[in-house]
Specification:
601 residues; alpha+beta; Rossmann fold; 2 domains; four-stranded antiparallel beta sheet; 27 strands; disordered N terminus; metal-binding; hydrolase; signal; tripeptidyl-peptidase activity; serine protease
């Protein structure tokens, strides 16, 4: 469809006084310009309307999550959250009027966001953008390096997507071929001795001290996990895992979001999802589990035929959390864990902020959102992407969101030590939240040396949100799982996050049985009374900024080498293991108002 020059002139007049919303100053090394799209090609975009009362979010979240607050555990329901935070009717009306006056006819209004479809030529005029095809890690994506909106609409809009986010979302799991004697080992894995080579459910039970706890068969405690990048957990593999390790045999439910597909293909992308599911099952002992499979379809507009070239290339985070927040209270799991992420600086600030705020609202509704901290240690490639190529440590998103429970990784056992490649550090986007003030300031003032702190100051934002919060086993020895009908081994912070999710789900089960609310946003409790129930990790270190990918050894084309870039496991909070490892019965004791010892099984 072509538009007349007169129409384009009208659009330009309407956007002459415009606000720059986002700009990708430089392209990541994994992004290449591919080709110019046809001007008549259709593009579908989403306008995220400005949420109301976001300036009150942290205060409200603190009131329901701080154990010292009189409102602790008094969570908001679905309708309350919508009433407080949904965009104003003025914002919706202003954006809809702009689209209609600009002759955009394909519009879908979803309340907090508006989707629309138009031609590339029309979109470029509307947003003063330049949409082009870019190759992102081998995947063609239609993106622009900048876009604008009219000045009078800037106060009503958080962002338009997909635009300047060249997402490289990655799963955190690592896999190895099974050892020859793994099946024989499985047969003997339930012996009392602690043998964690490989890590099995009985080993996890001893490591994190949840033996002897029996879940309520009618429990309302539920746990969910996200699957992106065409990952899909297999019921057959879960059944094999449960039989091999004498776990309660249960099914799991699947919810498809934004074009996600539950393919159940033994030769497909299943290992990350299988690792998440099976480790949750190992710990949660029969509690209901839901997999949320999120695809990357363009924003939905009814009755629109979207070209195949645009299918499943969009970043999943916004659609994922928008869907979860729209779920009814009985259907929304109290714990959600995710094992995907990317370098924080590659995510546009406005996108990261919007996603993080949605996660904060999840906390207000009593949900613990868990994220693996990442598998790049102190960082890689350790260079800013603002055109200045400044050497810096590389934090990981979404683990840097202050409303997430960020889980780092350990290795070995008896004792566990910090894993070399467990990501941690300090956010360059998000300020240090209230609950971290004491623990992190103690680390900076008393734990690391003044010499080290001064040396790291140019590379790390010590006033930013520090991560991870806690940790669990993630690497050698690897976890035993089943994938594609066969035994396999898995590792990474993709493993530590679901283990913690299972433990939080057990704690919620115990609390719900007593009529208490679930833990919800657990960080204030973990940084407060809960830290007494965690096992401190004081050995090992995370490394990074060597000029190479820590997992593949591949040298980066553009990177900075920062000598002695490490985070050490130390007493108290540290940027590789957080406060340390969970201890279920000790955590139960503290939650029940007693001592650590009072809760032990």
């Amino acid at each position: 469809m072509r538009f007349s020059n007169a129409l384009f002139a009208g659009i330009l007049v309407g956007t002459a006084r415009a606000t720059l919303m986002s700009r990708a100053v430089t392209l990541p090394t994994y992004v290449q310009l591919l080709q110019q799209p046809a001007t008549e090609e259709i593009v579908t975009l989403q306008i995220a309307l400005r949420l109301r009362n976001i300036d009150r979010l942290e205060y409200m979240l603190r009131s329901v999550s701080d154990p010292a607050s009189p409102d602790y555990g008094k969570y908001f329901d679905h309708d309350d959250a919508n009433t407080i935070f949904n965009p104003s009717s003025d914002s919706r009306a202003a954006v809809l009027q702009w689209l209609k006056e600009s002759n955009v006819t394909k519009i879908a209004d979803f309340g907090s966001y508006i989707n629309f479809a138009t031609t590339i030529e029309h979109a470029d005029k509307l947003l003063q953008s330049s949409f082009q095809y870019f190759l992102v890690d081998g995947t063609p994506k239609l993106r622009t390096r900048e876009y604008y909106v009219p000045d009078d609409l800037a106060e009503h809009i958080d962002l338009v997507s997909p635009t300047t986010f060249f997402g490289r979302t990655r799963a955190r799991a690592h896999h190895a071929p099974p050892s020859r004697d793994l099946l024989a080992y499985i047969q003997d894995s339930n012996t009392p001795a602690l043998n964690c080579t490989p890590v099995t459910p009985s080993c996890l039970q001893k490591l994190y001290n949840y033996g002897g706890y029996l879940v309520d068969l009618n429990s309302t405690s539920r746990v969910g996990f996200g699957s992106f990048l065409n990952q899909s957990a297999r019921q057959e593999d879960l059944s094999l895992y449960q039989r091999a390790y004498h776990l309660p045999e249960t099914n799991f439910s699947v919810v498809l979001i934004n074009g996600g597909e539950d393919h159940q293909d033994p030769l497909g992308d299943i290992k990350e999802a299988n690792l998440d599911l099976q480790l949750i099952s190992a710990v949660a002992q029969g509690l209901p589990i839901t997999e949320f499979i999120t695809g990357g379809r363009p924003p939905f507009v009814p009755n629109l035929d979207v070209p195949d070239t645009l299918h499943n290339t969009n970043e999943p985070y916004l659609e994922y959390y928008q869907y979860l927040l729209n779920m009814s209270d009985p259907d929304l799991p109290q714990v959600i864990t995710n094992s995907y992420g990317e370098d924080e600086q590659t995510v546009p600030l406005e996108y990261a902020t919007r996603v993080c705020n949605l996660i904060g609202i999840m906390g207000l509704r009593g949900v613990t959102v868990i994220e693996s901290s990442g598998d790049t240690g102190v960082g890689a490639p350790c260079q800013s992407n603002d055109g200045k190529a400044t050497p810096q440590f590389t934090p990981q998103f979404p683990a840097t969101c202050p409303y997430i429970l960020s889980v780092g990784g350990t290795q070995s056992y008896a004792p566990e030590v910090a894993w070399d490649d467990s990501s941690g550090g300090f956010s360059n986007y998000f300020a240090q939240p209230w609950y971290q003030t004491d623990g992190v300031s103690t680390y900076l003032s008393s734990v690391i040396s003044e010499e080290t702190r001064l040396y790291y100051t140019p590379f790390a934002n010590f006033s930013g949100r520090a991560f991870p919060d806690i940790s669990a086993h993630s690497h050698w020895p690897f976890y035993s799982i089943f994938s594609g009908g066969r035994t396999s081994l898995g590792a990474g912070t993709s493993a530590s996050a679901p283990v913690v999710a299972g433990i939080i789900a057990l704690l919620n089960d115990a609390r719900l049985q007593k009529g208490d609310p679930p833990l919800g946003f657990a960080n204030p409790w973990l940084y407060g009374p809960g830290r007494a129930a965690l096992t401190d990790v004081t050995a090992g270190q995370a490394r990074g900024c060597t000029g190479a990918n820590p997992q593949t050894g591949r040298l980066y084309a553009n990177s900075s080498v920062i000598p002695w870039a490490t985070w050490n496991g130390t007493g108290g909070w540290d940027p590789v293991t957080g406060w340390g490892l969970p201890n279920f019965w000790a955590m139960m004791g503290v939650l029940n108002g007693g001592s650590v010892a009072a809760g032990r099984g």
